[in-house]
């Protein structure tokens, strides 16, 4: 395990974006795999490989570049100057992440992207339906999980490891997202 972490760290330092894209795609695919196996839409549901492929594509090609950039922006632009700098910077980063990114970028991007990748036409109607049925429960679920985790993530981990930490916790979160996306 130490060898794997060492190799991952080397890749992260040499090619951070590509490394984050591969790991994010893999872990979103893992979340979809778990969702399909643990929470099938109906009994005897066959495994949908294209659904998992869409999750991998979304994670690696769409979300990872954005997430990689987002954590770097939070680390450099959201900084408290004054007493308790580290603690207050962490609190501000969590607030910006949870009150701006999650509700206005992260969750909408997921539902819009996945609806388009699934080719659910008419797109606008299906996207609006997904927002109507799933946006608020997803955001509430987000606020139950992510603020506490992100506080520790921003406070304890160097910026280059934050997306990986999010991705590891995201196995469970991605299972939930996939379940929400495909629930009737």
From TrEMBL:
Domain of life: Eukaryota
Cellular compartment(s): Membrane
InterPro entries in alphabetical order: Mpv17_PMP22
GO cellular component: membrane; mitochondrion
Membrane topology designation: Multi-pass membrane protein
Keyword annotations of the record: Membrane, Transmembrane, Transmembrane helix
Membrane spanning stretches: 91-112, 161-181
Predominant location: membrane
Name by which UniProt lists this protein: Protein SYM1
Species of origin: Candida oxycetoniae
